[in-house]
Description:
Blueprint: E1 2-6, H1 21-25, E2 29-32, H2 50-62, E3 68-73, H3 75-86, E4 91-97, E5 118-119, H4 137-146, E6 150-151, H5 152-156, E7 171-175, H6 180-189, E8 203-207, H7 214-217, H8 219-231
Parallel strand pairs: 1-2, 1-3, 3-4, 4-7, 7-8
Antiparallel strand pairs: 5-6
Helix pairs in contact: 2-3
Amino acid sequence: MDILLIPGFWLDGSSWSAVTPALTAAGHTVHPLTLPGLESPDADRGGIGLRDHIDAVVQAVDTLDGPVVLVGHSGGGAIAYGVVDARPERIARTVYVDSGPMSDGGVINDNLPEVNGEIPLPDWQFFEAADLIGLTDDLRTMFRDRSVPQPTGVAYDPQQLSDERRWDVPATLIACEFPSVVLQQWVADGHPFVQELARIKDVEFVDLPTGHWPQFTRPADLGDAILAAVDRTGTGAA
């Protein structure tokens, strides 16, 4: 199985490096993606928006044969869902890592502070305490040293969805910051934050207690959780 790994904000494809061993050992082919504008701190981020990131992943899907699994962390989950909408017949499963599908018209996070036309990784005080669980001083230093400013448009642009077949694509939500029972209760209560999630016909919830960056704080466990989700698609290794 081809597995496309979509990083969250401020990160490139190398952020998955400690997660992938379990996937490759099982015979899967991983494609850790670096999205436009995230190639380096010096990359040109002007004019890059959410659709550009979705289109970049769609292009990666189109280069492959057969069904693929998408894995999206944080803001990468909204990008993954845009790809599901664009290519529902190609996606075997979408795995959301501390993220979820974003509804039509939603934005990833327009509260992130823009600086000189881009969004650098904010100070740690900007984040909730739950975000930072397990992120030691050494991991924070590593993260900040490798971080790349996010194109503003990716965070601020509204999602555009059009194909209702997206609801037929199975989804796995790996819940990190808070238990999955909270998400399931939101679905039961009709909370607007999960209205798109509630429309997906086949959803499973997996708990991986840690902060918002499990690829750094619990990478081996995250790899195992993704592998289990891929195996449940029933298509096996490529």
